[in-house]
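request received
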Amino acid sequence: MERAHLLKLYTQMLLVRRFEERCAEMYALGKIGGFCHLYIGEEAVAVGAVDALRPDDYLFSAYRDHGHCLARGSAPKRVMAELFGRATGLCKGKGGSMHLVDAERRFMGGYAIVGGHLPLAAGAAFAVKYRGGDQVVLCFFGEGAVPSGACHETLNLAALWDLPVLFLCENNRYGMGTPVERAVALYSDVAQTASAHGIEARRVDGMDVLAVREAVSMAVDHVRTKRRPYFLEALTYRFLGHSMADPSHGHYRTKAEVDEAKKRDPLLLLKTRLLSERQAGDDDFKRIEQEVAQIVREAVEFADASPFPTEKDLEEDVYT
Amino acid sequence: MKATYREALNQALREEMRRDDRVFLIGEDVAYYQGAFKVSKGFLEEFGPRRVVDTPITELGFTGLAIGAAMAGLRPVVEVMTFNFAILAMDQIVNNAAKVRYMSGGQLSVPLVIRGPGSAAHQLGAQHSQSLEAWFCHVPGLKVVAPATPYDAKGLIKSAIRDENPVVFIEAQLLYPTQGEVGDGDYTIPLGVAEVKRPGTDVTLIAYSKMLLVALDAAAKLAQEGIQAEVVDPRTLRPLDLTTLAASARKTGKVVIVEEGWPVAGLGAQIAESLYQRVFDHLDGPILRVTGRDVPMPYARNLEDAAVPDADRVVAAVHQALYRK
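response:
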């Protein structure tokens, strides 16, 4: 991979990291409300995966969706404005943290009923096939969605009808506070769930952005050329709590476990690799850090200066 | 031209599928079996399996899939074998179909029709005999239609398919074989427009779907005793055409609402409330409701008959409204 490309992936991961850190601050200040699920620790999955897509491919995500949206190239200031509940947000302040949509980029949304968006992704794939197109639909979801009826019904339909959809399971090991071992029967190999439906599946190290990039490229190629679904399980870890409402560790996992996972921080892994391979130097990282800081600062300033939606907007967009 | 309710739907769907390649039919046994109630008779032959799609028995999955297809530019018509089974898809209908447009700030839309029979037929038991329209009417973002006649079914399903919003289109098993005049060729009836089905001066009967036939039957009986009932069919239950309903209520001063659904939090309660807000001063007495009985549907035919509104109960309610007997 070219140096510029590698640095681009690093920059995108850093953008998500710094953006999310600012979200936490803004949440503490009361600028962001409601449920807010940060993506810190999982950046390599979104960045590596989205990088393997074409602009006309479709994406669906769940409620931990900031990272996917930013990786797809949505303007950080419009994402932040949405989190602030402002009229300039991606969804005019009507969606919020869990329901980011950027239709122009075919980012079809974040959905907050666990498992509920998998059928939607299969539906977009159905539309692609119906029109004879060659787009791919990438569907992100957590391992917590895997046991749901929605997941199994969707895997069955996708396999039955040869739908061009890539199921990307972000296995961060916890559905809120319940570990995968206590939620998924096939916990030691979640991807087997898809194999049971006749869908080719594999597992990838979700902390290594280059491994993710490669696995998703291969999977996307499989879906696009063979016109068959594919299931990828990315092993990842969230460094913070489930949402802003809970700490990073406590009753359900130990500080030692979190600290251990942080040794494989996706940003650290790529940075170490680039430095050791002499693809980049300290100056590069310093420059990227400054660029990203600037983008995030501007995003917060834009959001803060933006107007709230008005009462007039309340009843708009219910129907056409 | 005469046609049954079933044939009217078949014609309308066929014409819409010929008109627009984005329209397709998806559901259990819609293709090879030609529909559990034969609404899609001949479709597989004419349109092929690409556009007439048999599904496994997974309402959540295929309804959600159709919603996703609509978001990506198609115009699906989902057939639920009966609306009882739509309960399995309620999360998809309520949390996705109804809300995607709003949550996205208008970026996405869901031009989708979910259709099939609701209400009781004969002796199908509690799980296959229920009127759930109030559930759907509760949800902003959905439109709900429940036509009673072949003519209305044809014109309204066309409007539903051409609408940019998700439309829940409730038919009735006992209506499928009923006959009526159907307009020739392409006509549509706008959603949200009620119709006076029988003019009258003494009392307003509001009824939709199968209950329209009960109300008309009651009106004929009332006419024999000199009572002229005006029968109004909202046809679309959300949005309700309150202008037409209120005009009739204002004229007669007495209103009886007939619905097959359960009484508690039923649609008639909503219609009554809306009318009180508009025409309270013009009413001679309280609005009365004739509803399904507040029980799961029993199997025994005599108990089932007792649970569903009939003309005699409507006549009795009119007598009460008119302070007769």
